[in-house]
Amino acid sequence: MGYKEKFRFSFQNPGKLVFGAGAIKNVSKELQALGASRALLVTDEALAGSPMVAAAKAGLGKNLAGVFDRVVPDSGLEVVNAGAAAGREAKADCVVSVGGGSSIDTAKGIAVLLKKGGDDIRPYIGYFSVKEKPVPHLAIPTTAGTGSECTSMAVIKDREKNVKALIMDLNLIPPVGILDPELLLGLPPLLTAATGMDAMTHAVESMISTNYMPPADALAAHAIQLLLDYLPRAVQNGRDLEARSMTLIASAEAGQAFQNAFVGVVHALAHALGGMFGVPHGIANAMFLAEGMAYNLSAAAGRVAAVARAMGIPASGNERKDGEAAVAKMREFGRSLGLPQRLSEVKVDPSRLEDCAKLALADGAMTTNPRRPAGPQELLAIYQARL
Q1: What is the pLDDT of residues 224-252, one digit of tens each?
Q2: Which of 7, 27, 62, 110 fits 83 for a cystine, CB–CB 3.0-4.6 Å?
């Protein structure tokens, strides 16, 4: 796997993960085990009237204190603040999130403010500023992609600055995540593909990261195998429960992997596009995953070759050659899922890509990327390759 002769790592396991069809029925039981009894249900506007949210409400029963359903894609700091106000009004002592990464990340911020007090999440932006456990947060993902139910990170948009703000603290890891594959049945193909490639990016970048480590590699490699096998099936048939189950497990595994090893240039590029143009995170990651792998080949051929092993590519004895094979296979895999391949397809203004490259260069994800750009022009070239 190309490990260094001497290196150290710290691996943080997530909270409890409960997997199974119908697992959402256990939500009250899990909350009670956490010593909580009054839950603020946090979800997004599109899901507010869905069977998923109805199932969560039924599972909570008398433990449902209130509902905050104003989360939007690329949820903003102001949404977190409004959610915390709703939680205080409902006298909530815990948070249950139902949805994708935006709902779960918003709920992380709400849980912090319900514990800390105050009406603004901004003081906690950055690294290790929370410093204590928020009120209990039970996360229920409805997509197989972000792995946010396993991570110490919340990405929330600062609309004033038009950037994505990061809150990172080990205390943000939800103590319980419920993985119920029935909640994913029927998700549309584009959303399935985009979120699945988000999980794939987490797995791949955690293996290439300068902070790579054996436990994260094990989780990431298995996630890559599951996604290669089952993501196309989930895209083709949204009612395939086995495919939904395996991609949901892969997303959680990839979440645990990147929670510990972190990510790199692909996420930096995607964060900048999302902040400036609102490009969905999974679509941006999918568009640049193979490009990021190729970019890092010169600095980390052995690690890209490790990704090749996870992809089922036999070792040739030449790490560079194996890495190139992994790049080609990943490029074709992303194309086969029917996702946008060009920035013109997601309405990106080419004249502003240089500004995007500068944002990407300053992004925290670049700190663990093995290849260090000499300047924003290197990242601009990656963007321009997808015009």
Answers
A1: 999 999 999 999 999 999 999 999 999 99
A2: 110
**Cα 36 from chain centroid?**
26
Classified as helix, coil or strand, 216 is helix
Contact, 8 vs 167, CB < 8 A? Answer: no
Per-position DSSP letters for 339-371, written without gaps between them: ---SGGGGT--GGGHHHHHHHHHHSGGGGG-SS
pTM of the model: 0.96
User: Distance between CA atoms of 322 and 337, rounded to whole angstroms?
Assistant: 23
Q: How far apart are the C-alpha atoms of 305 and 208, rounded to whole Å?
A: 9
Q: Which amino acid is at 169?
A: D
CATH topology of domain 189-384: Dehydroquinate synthase-like, alpha domain (1.20.1090)
What are the domain boundaries of the chain? 16-184, 189-384
Helix (H, G, I), strand (E, B) or coil at 224: helix
As given in the structure block, the two tokens for residue 28 are 């009250």
SS3 of 103-141 = HHHHHHHHHHHHHHCCCCCHHHCEECCCCCCCCCEEEEE
Q: Which residues, 6 or more positions from 136, have their beta carbon under 8 angstroms from its beta carbon? A: 31, 34, 35, 36, 93, 94, 95, 111, 175, 176
How does pLDDT run across 167-198, given as a tens digit for each residue? 999 999 999 999 999 999 989 999 999 999 99
Q: Alpha-carbon distance 109 to 98, whole Å?
A: 14
Is the per-residue pLDDT at 14 higher than 80?
A: no
